[in-house]
Amino acid sequence: MKLVIKGGRLIDPKHGRDAVTDVYIASGKIAALGAAPAGFIAQRMIDATGLVVCPGFVDLSARLREPGLEYKATLESELEAAMAGGVTSLVCPPDTDPPLDEPGLVEMLKHRARSLNKARVFPLGALTQKLEGRELTEMAELSDAGCIGFSQADAALTDTMTLMRALQYAATFGFAVWLRPQDVFLSRHGVAHDGEVATRLGLPGIPSCAETVALSTILLLARETGARIHLCRLSTAAGIGMVRVAKEQGLAVTCDVGMHHVHLSESDIGFFDSNCRLVPPLRAEADRAAIRAGLADGTIDAVCSDHSPVDDDAKQVPFGEAEPGATGLELLLPLSLQWAREAHLPLDRALARITHEPARLLGIAGGELGVGSPADVCVFDPDAHWRVDRKSLYSQGKNTPFLGARMQGRVCCTLVDGHVVFDRPHGREARKQATT
Amino acid sequence: MRNNPQINQHGELNHLLTLEGLPREILLHILDTAASFVGVAEREVKKVPLLRGKAIFNLFFEPSTRTRTTFEIAAKRLSADVLNLNIGASSQSKGETVLDTVDNLSAMHADMFIVRHAQSGAAHLIAQHVAPHIHVINAGDGRHAHPTQGLLDMYTIRHYKPDFGGLRVAIVGDLMHSRVARSEIHALNILGTREVRVIAPKTLIPSGVEGLGVQVYHNMAAGLAGVDVVIMLRLQHERMKGAILPSAQEYFKYYGLTPEKLAFCSHDAIVMHPGPMNRGVEIDSSVADGAQSVILPQVTFGIAVRMAVMSILASSGS
Question: What percent of chain A has pLDDT over 90?
Answer without folding.
Answer: 94
